[in-house]
Write a structure and sequence with these properties.
By secondary structure, the protein is α/β, with parallel strands linked by helices. The protein folds into two domains: 141 residues, Alpha-Beta Complex (Aspartate Aminotransferase, domain 1), CATH 3.90.1150; 247 residues, Aspartate Aminotransferase, domain 2. 35% of the residues lie in helices and 15% in strands. It is built from twelve helices and 14 strands. The strands form three sheets. The chain has a seven-stranded mixed β-sheet with strand order 4-10-9-8-7-5-6, sandwiched between helices. A four-stranded mixed β-sheet has the order 1-2-3-13. Strands 11-12-14 form a three-stranded antiparallel β-sheet. Helix 2 packs parallel to helix 9, helix 5 runs parallel beside helix 6 and helix 10 packs parallel to helix 12. The radius of gyration is 21 Å and the shape is globular. The chain binds 4'-deoxy-4'-aminopyridoxal-5'-phosphate. The site of 4'-deoxy-4'-aminopyridoxal-5'-phosphate has 16 residues, from helix 3. 4'-deoxy-4'-aminopyridoxal-5'-phosphate binds next to helix 3.
């Protein structure tokens, strides 16, 4: 693809595609949004990397800490991966412990310790662990299944005193979309607290997308540390980690946890991020996205062999013969164990059929789709009709 505008991608031969991947999530306002472009261009004209104190990261930080009470202090990095690496380092320093608990199918970027039983690009890999991981790093990672309080209890009973932090995507979105029961997350928070381990929410996908306050705001479960990425930079390279001030004060230069980055908090990304969040503030975009999501849900309800799990503007199309007609799985899919066995096999032909129709989905059965403020009702209807034709033709 050579470019994008609004809800469309354009390929190198000039063909246009209706995009439901949206760069894997950052582009909540659509491609090349004019407001974000103006903010980034302004920064470009003033000089794009200053290497010293500047007001732009401070403005973005104050915007966030003023609206998300569990983020008392925040630090900007260049990616979600870096945000997670740094938050884990803080957790280890704060607790003096080394083990990290993660969940099957959750993806937290490509730091070694997080590449076990990960989702995203590893979801369809023959082995869900990356090659090239140092054995002593891997030993520090504990893995629990999603949606299973009994397994959690056992894990904390056995390992609780060694666990520095439990990290979770509170709405797992890297192995399909696997909404967790609030009771499961509450149990996790309680077990972490009673074992003096920290709770880290990885909101790289959900942050500022499910609402300005992300999943922590929606659920009322406030983590000790939180990681952001994607929407927070409006499509520019930004990640962030934050949380309780007492924890964040461990980070250099105030404290002993080293973390720095030559290009971190560069003005271009900070200005683009702030312009994006400001557009989201009055809630109109979130309401629009919810109504588009409902339209998609209704449209799919009549189609065979396909179902949808959706939360706000994040959706997962499940292509499977096991799906009840009516658009939703008979029981919500919340863990890897509950995945339909034929979901991956059915996706590839569907993906190519849609591509031929000028519709672009993320190219994997387990990647979620994203709606943006640039999508219109007619775009949703086009997707539904293309799915109807594709499924009718046996894709
Ligand atoms: N955490 C989650 C939940 C993610 O979805 C991702 C990326 N998809 C990451 C971390 C890593 O972010 P990045 O690709 O910016 O390094």
């Amino acid at each position: 693809m050579s470019g994008g505008a609004g809800s469309r991608l354009r390929d190198v031969e000039g063909r246009e595609y209706l995009d439901f991947c949206m760069a894997f999530g950052p582009l909540i306002l659509g491609h090349a949004d004019s407001g974000v472009r103006a903010a980034a261009t302004g920064a470009l004209e003033r000089g794009w990397s200053l290497g010293t104190a500047e007001p732009y990261s401070l403005e973005l930080a104050e915007y966030i800490t003023g609206r998300l009470p569990w983020v008392e202090s925040i630090r900007f990095v260049n990616s979600g991966t870096e945000a997670v690496m740094s938050a884990l380092r803080v957790a280890r320093a704060a607790t003096g412990r080394s083990k990290i608990l993660k969940f099957e199918g959750c993806y937290h970027g490509h730091a070694d310790a997080m590449l076990l039983k990960a989702g995203s690009g590893l979801a369809e890999a023959p082995v869900p662990d990356s090659a090239g991981l140092a054995p002593d790093v891997v030993q520090e990672t504990l893995i629990a299944p999603l949606d299973d309080e009994a397994a959690l209890e056992k894990m904390f009973a056995r390992e609780g005193e060694h666990i520095a932090a439990a990290i979770i995507e509170p709405l797992p979105a890297n192995y399909g979309l696997l909404p967790q029961r609030p009771q499961f997350l509450q149990r996790l928070a309680a077990l972490a607290r009673s074992h003096a381990a920290l709770l880290i929410f990885d909101e790289v996908i959900t942050g500022f997308r499910l609402g300005l306050q992300g999943y922590a705001g929606l659920s009322g479960i406030h983590p000790d540390l939180v990681t952001y990425g994607k929407v927070i930079g409006g499509g520019f390279p930004v990640g962030a980690y934050g949380g309780r001030r007492s924890l964040m004060e461990l980070v250099a230069p105030a404290g002993p946890v080293y973390q720095a980055g030559t290009l971190s908090a560069n003005p271009l990304a900070m200005c683009a991020g702030l312009a994006t969040l400001q557009r989201l503030e009055d809630g109109r975009v979130y309401r629009q996205l919810e109504s588009l999501g409902q339209r998609l849900e209704k449209g799919l309800a009549g189609l065979p062999d396909i179902a949808l799990q959706r939360v706000g503007s994040i959706f997962w199309l499940i292509r499977s013969a096991a799906m009840r007609p009516g658009g939703k799985p008979a029981a919500a899919i919340r863990s890897l164990r509950a995945l339909p066995a034929d979901a991956a096999a059915g996706f590839a032909p569907l993906f190519h059929r849609l591509l031929d129709e000028g519709i672009y989905l993320a190219p994997s059965a387990y990647e979620v789709g994203f709606l943006s403020a640039a999508h219109r009702e007619a775009d949703i209807d086009r997707l539904v009709e293309a799915l109807r034709r594709s499924l009718g033709a046996g894709a």
